[in-house]
Amino acid sequence: MISPFDAAGPLRDAYLDVDWAAGPLGPVAGWSPTLLGAVDVLLNTRTAATLLWGPEFSLLYNSAYVPMIGNKHPAALGRPAREVFDEIWDEIGPMLEAVRSGRGATWVEDMKLLMNRHGYLEETYFTFSYSAVSEPGGTIEGVLDIATETTGLVVGRRRLDLLRRLTDQVADVGTVEEFVERALPVLHGDAADLPGAELRRASARDTGGRVRVALPEGLELVTGLSPHRPDDEDYRGFLRLVAAALTLGLNRVAGRRAAATERQLAEALQRSLLSHPAQPDHVQVAVRYHPAAEGAWVGGDWYDAFQLPDGRLAVAVGDVTGHDRDAAAAMSQIRNLLRGISYALPVPPEQVLSALNDAMTGLVVDELATVVLAHIDLETHDMRWSNAGHPPPALLHPDGTAELLQASAEPLLGTRIVTTRTSHELHLAVGATVVFYTDGLLERRDRPLDEGFATLLRALAGQSHLSAEELCEHLSDTLITDSEDDVVLAVVRRRPG
Question: 271: which of 100, 211, 241, 302 is 20 to 30 A away, CA to CA?
Fold first, then answer.
């Protein structure tokens, strides 16, 4: 007999361990055809989803949903939602009741919920929709929840905005007193991340368990930590960025040469605009960002690697003209636009780039950019890519030979040239590696670009035994030592075996 939980994958045992007969849904043998059909759809969906069934909204969910509820799993399976989500029931309960009573589907973006999923009330954000699931006669039996956690994006935007405002406010101050006067309102404006922040003269006074950071000019930053955010490397890294921005401003007040500090802040800000790449099964993904040997501000080089709703891996590398904060701002806009278009539109890469070009025009993103975008099917390992004026990716075959994935030149993004973009396809054999990069990897003032391509292929030849991370390090050590521009690398390798 086929079990309705056979498609549950890693959750199959958890489903089988539930005493369904003792819960609100009753024995599985008595489940309605509507419930069984909804469970089949749920467990065969890769997007995070859950069913909230019956008058008690009993929970059934797929494996993609588990990270969203943390240590509530596996006890949450089969239990009423009010028991599982007691701490947020005042927010979500009325929404669920409204859908079940027939008042239509809901849609919320970046909704803040204080969830207890790791032993404390955690600040989380979700974009989700509740929609009714009805039996053939029209009676609503349950509610389907399709959700995406946006906590990282919301918190990251908030922190980046504070860093931007802080840098702008203290850029041209003339005295320490003016510095404190301008900086404090900005710090107080982010009470979610910097509760009770102070800028004061350094002392040995007790800080009451708060974090203390030493600054130039005899000052220190003292701040609490949010009880609703994990005290992890991301949080501590943000505090280091705040301290770096304050240090930069104070060094300017003192008239010191601040080139080294500016460069550290620039690199940190640039990295903060770039997310961690997806790491799907059977594929290795490694990325690197290397700032230019000269220069102190952020630039327009970027990478991205994320999974699409249908499970494919999207990999993009791009370069916005310019090397200043305007280029960095445009880069962030273009990267986020590409992400949103890719996630919302199930179309091939060339159509994504066409839509991205249209969005840049309509939203007046007045910058030129090159982008190469690839979609990799993680089941067939077929790769389809499109190139908008970017250097061609390089393919390292399992036998150690390397070639450029050359294609006919197509216009950059932002040119307003009306064109029909094309894409190209290849199959990634076991052990094959694709290298995406920006032009800073190859371009040098004293050599033609063709020589740069030849240098890249020589550096790749015979290196097919290296992992994606090892190959990133090899290329960095071999080619980037004297780079005159920012460099981004994104390496994708099909795992052997």
Answer: 211
